[in-house]
Write a structure and sequence with these properties.
- Helices cover 43% and strands 14% of the residues.
- The protein has 398 residues and is α/β, with parallel strands linked by helices.
- Strands 2-8-7-6-5-3-4 form a seven-stranded mixed beta sheet, sandwiched between helices. A four-stranded antiparallel beta sheet has the order 9-10-13-12. A two-stranded parallel ribbon has the order 1-11.
- It is built from 14 helices and 13 strands.
- Bound molecules: pyridoxal-5'-phosphate.
Length: 398
């Protein structure tokens, strides 16, 4: 018997070093805690109101018509054509649905497939923080080294010099998310032009997550960086159905990119998931053809929710950063004197009965978010009423 064998086996690393480098999703953990304590869930950003009837009917029809087998791996043709048509109509960018679009299982997979398609060992990726928590594991799993650049409250502006200093010969991509989760920032044209100039100078991709493109307030417009001169060929635009059509559980998203980039994304996507749910892609084509009035009503309804949630949180003593887009409100909790955001969030769930997300989960260095927490407001009036009643108790504690 070889005496060395057991030692050797013990020395073998049984779990992936990559998987050890990130924790489970804090946001989804908060949802589980909210269920356990029967708290009103203003943590995870899923709508608790119905999806539009016409798209639910379209999904039912597709199943009844037996659209029940694999779609083309990079997406059903009617959906890709609808995506191309809508991108041209809303942003003036024309793309070829045959060579420049990949339908994935949500933005989540589209982002991962895009990163895996362009990242090589040693590549750096610029990430604005606070950031949507998936971007951390996305960089780790794709092998990129993140370079974080701060968006600073109250208006979440970035410092031009800090951003310029984050770019260099190793930079492969910048991840952009506009309208932004968690801050509600909507990047302005001048900011996008500054980013564009850096991307061109350093020959860098912009990977832009635009899932909240239709949830905008106060007359602010969403601009896709792909529409800027010089960016069409170097942008990977990520989007999806989850938020615009209130179907987060359908898992339909997409990546739009130049043909050679798309070819790489399609290969990664094929071997990750083969494809998104076929009948739901058919319904997606119907959704993307909804009239302009659908998007106007969506934005108006969210404006009402934003304003009432701001009033309710402020009334409870939370200092709010007013969002320009998306459906989250970042708040400052320093007035409550808790040691950190996690302790405050646990207290909020267990004692007050409202769930939120600790700010630290949006920062590379948890200390940077230790006095912030995020609430979402993609909820019915009844849910927001219940939260408002419970938050009255918070005011008394202050
Ligand atoms: C910025 C951002 N991107 C992507 C997603 C997830 O998108 P999908 O449901 O299409 O995977 C979310 C969900 O909260 C998000 O906030």
């Amino acid at each position: 018997m070889n005496a060395a064998a057991p030692d050797k086996a013990a020395a073998k690393r049984m779990l992936s070093a990559k998987a050890e480098r990130f924790t489970e999703s804090v946001i989804r953990e908060m949802t589980r805690l909210a269920i356990a304590h029967r708290a009103v869930n203003l943590a995870q950003g899923f709508p608790d109101f119905p999806a539009p009837d016409e798209i639910k009917r379209a999904a039912q029809d597709a199943i009844a018509r037996d659209v029940n087998q694999y779609a083309i791996t990079w997406g059903a043709k009617p959906l890709r054509e609808a995506i191309a048509e809508k991108f041209a109509r809303s942003q003036g960018v024309s793309v070829d649905p045959e060579r420049e679009i990949t339908v994935c299982c949500g933005c989540t997979e589209a982002m991962m497939a895009a990163m895996m398609a362009v990242i090589n060992p040693g590549d750096e990726v610029v990430v604005f923080e606070p950031f949507y928590e998936n971007y951390g594991p996305d960089t780790i799993l794709s092998g990129a080294t993140p370079r974080f650049v701060k968006l600073r409250a109250p208006d979440w502006a970035f410092d031009d010099q800090e951003l310029a200093a984050a770019f260099g010969p190793q930079t492969k991509a910048i991840i952009l998310n506009t309208p932004n989760n968690p801050t509600g920032k909507v990047f302005r044209r001048t900011e996008l032009e500054f980013i564009r100039d850096l991307c061109v100078r350093w020959n860098v991709f912009a990977i832009t997550d635009e899932i909240y493109e239709h949830i905008l307030y106060d007359g602010i417009r969403h601009i896709s960086i792909a529409a800027l001169d010089g960016m069409r060929e170097r942008t990977i635009t990520i989007n999806g159905m989850s938020k615009t059509y209130a179907v987060t559980g359908w898992r339909v998203g997409w990546a739009i990119a130049a043909p050679e980039v798309t070819a790489a994304i399609r290969k990664v996507h094929d071997f990750l998931t083969v494809g998104a749910a076929a009948p739901l892609q058919e319904a997606g084509a119907v959704a993307l053809h909804l009239p302009e009035s659908y998007y106007q009503k969506l934005a108006a309804d969210y404006l009402a929710r934003r304003d009432r949630t701001l009033a309710m949180l402020e009334e409870a003593g939370l200092a709010c950063f007013k969002p320009e887009g998306a459906y989250y409100i970042m708040t400052d909790i320093s007035a409550f004197g808790f040691p950190d955001d996690v302790a405050f969030t646990r207290f909020l769930i267990q004692e007050i009965g409202v769930a939120a997300v600790p700010g630290s989960s949006f920062y590379n260095n948890p200390a940077d978010g230790s006095q912030q927490i995020r609430f979402c407001f993609c909820k019915t009036d009844a849910t927001l009423d219940a939260a408002a009643r419970r938050l009255k108790k918070l005011k008394q504690r202050k």
